[in-house]
C-alpha cells in the first residue's frame, strides 16, 4: 500500500512511526517531510504542504492509495476536498469541518448555536470598534487572531494599553497576515487546561487519551505563546467526573451540532478545554492532531493506527476499538534559541544511541556530509515513559541530558503543574 502524509514536523514524524509499527511494509511518502524522516520514508521537500495542485498531481502520478492530511493550513484551504474529489481516500476533514479551526468566530458561533460552554466573546473586523470595546472591557482579556496562526495567534493582555498594542500589531501591522485582520476578544478564563484529541467519522466520536500542553516558551508559563513546548499524558485533571462532564456537555453536543449543520467531519477533532470554577469550557477546537500532544498520545495507543484511519475515512469508526496502555508519557520540546520569533538555525545535533528511540524530529535538515542540523524553531521532541507520571517526566529529562546542539532551549518544568495537581497541592 502507498500512503501519503502531508506535513513536516514532529506530529507527522510521530504519526509515520506509529503507522509503520503495525504496518512495516507500508510504502510511506511524506510531503514535504523533514530530513530525519528519510530514515523510514520517502520525503519530497520540493512539494509544499499547502500546494494543493502539486500534492494532487503527485498523488495521482504515484498512485497514492491513502492520504493523511495533518497541518491546519492545507485542511482549511480544502486539500482533502481536492484529493477526495479526485478519488484519493483521506484521513482529515474537508474544508467545511476544518473551519472549526480556520475561523475562531465560526467556532464561537457554532458553540453558541449548539449550547456548548465557552468563554463570552465579541468579534471585530474594524480596529476602532475593537479598541473601543477593549477600553471598557474587564481584564485580563484574551485577544485571538480569527484565522490560522500556527498556534501563536493568542495574547492575554493585562490592561487597555497592552490591548491597544496587541490590536495594532494584529489588525494594522498584520502580524499574522489575513489571519489577524479579524479578531476575537474573549473573556479570560482561569483553571487547568486539558487537551483531548478524538477520532470522528461523522457519526461516531471516540476520545483519545487526555493530555496537558505547555504553550508558553519559558518556565512558569512566561513569555510568548508557541506551538507547544512540552506535554504530558494522561492529564490528572481529567478525572472520571470531568470526563463525564466532557462527554455529556461538550463532546456529544459537538458531534450533534456538526450533524445538525450538515458537516460530515471525518478526521481528528481536538478539544482544547479549561476546567474553570464554573465548569468545563471549550477554549478552542482544532481540526487535526495537536503538536506535541500527538507525540505522547499515539505511542500509548493500542492496535493498528492505519486500521483506525481507514475506519474513520469509511464512516466505520464504531467497528474498531480505540484503547490505550495504562502508562504515562512525557515530551520535552527542544527548540532553537530565539524561538518563536527568531530561532537560530544550522546547529549540529548530537545524541547518544541509547536515546534514539525516544526522539521525534521536527525542524531538522542534513548537511552535505549527512550531519543532522537544526532548521526550525522546534527542533526535536524528547519522550519519556513510565508506569506513573513522575516516572515518565523523570525519564524524559534524563533523555534530554544526552542531546546536544548549540543554542538549544527547553523548559525545565514540563509536567510540574500536573504533578502538583496529582499530589493535591
TrEMBL record:
This entry's Enzyme Commission designation comes to 6.3.4.13
Superkingdom of the organism of origin: Bacteria
Q: Which InterPro entries match?
A: ATP-grasp, ATP_grasp_subdomain_1, PreATP-grasp_dom_sf, PRibGlycinamid_synth_ATP-grasp, PRibGlycinamide_synth, PRibGlycinamide_synth_C-dom, PRibGlycinamide_synth_C_sf, PRibGlycinamide_synth_CS
Catalytic activity of the protein: 5-phospho-beta-D-ribosylamine + glycine + ATP = N(1)-(5-phospho-beta-D-ribosyl)glycinamide + ADP + phosphate + H(+)
Q: Which Pfam families match?
A: GARS_A (PF01071), GARS_C (PF02843), GARS_N (PF02844)
Q: Name a GO molecular-function annotation.
A: metal ion binding
Write down the HAMAP family for this protein, in alphabetical order: GARS
Which NCBIfam families did the record assign? purD
Q: What is this protein called?
A: Phosphoribosylamine--glycine ligase
Amino acid at each position: 500500500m502507498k500512503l501519503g502524509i502531508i506535513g513536516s514536523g514532529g506530529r507527522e514524524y510521530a504519526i509515520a512511526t506509529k503507522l509503520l509499527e503495525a504496518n512495516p511494509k507500508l510504502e510511506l511518502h511524506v510531503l514535504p517531510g523533514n530530513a530525519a524522516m528519510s530514515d523510514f520514508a520517502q520525503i519530497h521537500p520540493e512539494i509544499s504542504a499547502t500546494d494543493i495542485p502539486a500534492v494532487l498531481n503527485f498523488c495521482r502520478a504515484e498512485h497514492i492509495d491513502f492520504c493523511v492530511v495533518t497541518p491546519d493550513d492545507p485542511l482549511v484551504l480544502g486539500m482533502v476536498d481536492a484529493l477526495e474529489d479526485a478519488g484519493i481516500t483521506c484521513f482529515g476533514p474537508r474544508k467545511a469541518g476544518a473551519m472549526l479551526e480556520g475561523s475562531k468566530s465560526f467556532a464561537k458561533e457554532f458553540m453558541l448555536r449548539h449550547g456548548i460552554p465557552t468563554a463570552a466573546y465579541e468579534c471585530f473586523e474594524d480596529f476602532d470598534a475593537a479598541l473601543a470595546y477593549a477600553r471598557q472591557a474587564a481584564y485580563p482579556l484574551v485577544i485571538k487572531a480569527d484565522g490560522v496562526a500556527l498556534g501563536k495567534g493568542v495574547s492575554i493582555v493585562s490592561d487597555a494599553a497592552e490591548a491597544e498594542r496587541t490590536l495594532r500589531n494584529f489588525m494594522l501591522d498584520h502580524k499574522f497576515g489575513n489571519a489577524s485582520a479579524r479578531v476575537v476578544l474573549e473573556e479570560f478564563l482561569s483553571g487547568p487546561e486539558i487537551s483531548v484529541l478524538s477520532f470522528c467519522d461523522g457519526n461516531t466520536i471516540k476520545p483519545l487519551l487526555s493530555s496537558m500542553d505547555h504553550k508558553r516558551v519559558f518556565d512558569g508559563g512566561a513569555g510568548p505563546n508557541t506551538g507547544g513546548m512540552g506535554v504530558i499524558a494522561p492529564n490528572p485533571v481529567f478525572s472520571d467526573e470531568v470526563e463525564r462532564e466532557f462527554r455529556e456537555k461538550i463532546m456529544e453536543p459537538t458531534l450533534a451540532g456538526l450533524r445538525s449543520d450538515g458537516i460530515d467531519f471525518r478526521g481528528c477533532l481536538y478539544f482544547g478545554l479549561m476546567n474553570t470554577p464554573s465548569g468545563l469550557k471549550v477554549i478552542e477546537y482544532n481540526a487535526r492532531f495537536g503538536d506535541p500532544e500527538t507525540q505522547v498520545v499515539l505511542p500509548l495507543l493500542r492496535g493498528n493506527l492505519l486500521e483506525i484511519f481507514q475506519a474513520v475515512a469509511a464512516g466505520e469508526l464504531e467497528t474498531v476499538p480505540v484503547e490505550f496502555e495504562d502508562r504515562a508519557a512525557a515530551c520535552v520540546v527542544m527548540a532553537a534559541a530565539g524561538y518563536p520569533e527568531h530561532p537560530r538555525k544550522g546547529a549540529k545535533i548530537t545524541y547518544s544511541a541509547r536515546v534514539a528511540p525516544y526522539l521525534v524530529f521536527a525542524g531538522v535538515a542534513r548537511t552535505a556530509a549527512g550531519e543532522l542540523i537544526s532548521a526550525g524553531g522546534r527542533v526535536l521532541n524528547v519522550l519519556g515513559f513510565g508506569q506513573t507520571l513522575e516516572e515518565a517526566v523523570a525519564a524524559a529529562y534524563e533523555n534530554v541530558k544526552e542531546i546536544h546542539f548549540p543554542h538549544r532551549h527547553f523548559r525545565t518544568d514540563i509536567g510540574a503543574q500536573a504533578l502538583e495537581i496529582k499530589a493535591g497541592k
